[in-house]
Write a structure and sequence with these properties.
- By secondary structure, this protein is mostly helical.
- The protein has a domain of 34 residues.
- It has one helix and no strands.
- The longest helix is centred in the middle third of the chain and has 33 residues.
Length: 49
């Protein structure tokens, strides 16, 4: 990968983001689902008496 000297840090950052994005995105989505899921999904919602 050949980049201009001034853009090398950006290339490294983009590469690291691309490498970690799927795992991080999956973790974030799983966290959001765990937070919102029980309240939004009718089958997993706790029964209120």
């Amino acid at each position: 990968m050949v980049v201009a000297p001034g853009y090398a840090p950006y290339a490294v950052i983009v590469f690291l983001l691309a490498a970690t994005a799927p795992t991080a995105l999956h973790a974030v989505l799983r966290a959001i689902r765990s937070i919102l899921g029980p309240r939004t999904h009718p089958r997993t919602a706790p029964r209120v008496r």
